[in-house]
Design brief:
3 helices; Heat Shock Protein 90
Amino acid sequence: MADHQEASVTLPSDPASVSAARKYVSSVLVEWGMPGDAEVADTVRLIVSELATNAVQHTLGQSPTFTVDIALDRDELLRIGVTDSHPRFPKRLPAAVQQDNGRGMVIIRCLAAECGGKLSVRPTREGGKTVAIELPWTKPMQPVAASPGPGEA
């Protein structure tokens, strides 16, 4: 595998784009060798869904698109960032127990940490922001050929 691989997609800030972002990242990860049914693949899909949802819901119509960037460095570090053009950084919203929103960044941070990764937010030169995760790349397991048992050949 190459020392560095990258993929990127720009989507409209529309609720339908959340699913498109998730499917795009899933297909790239499979192409790079991560089994689609791996537990970490499910985690990454959930994180991408949360990041894309935030880019759509919390830019208040001021970001007509968002971009999902994926990079894999030396088969060791997976980076996924979602960039929008809204200048406001995400913040934890007060969330009552009954509310269905306001906990996305907490969820993302916890999921990344459970995988040994981290969450970061940085401004872009254009005045927007990128919310990104870094995760250790789990090398796909290769099937091990079973050794013949006693009496088998």
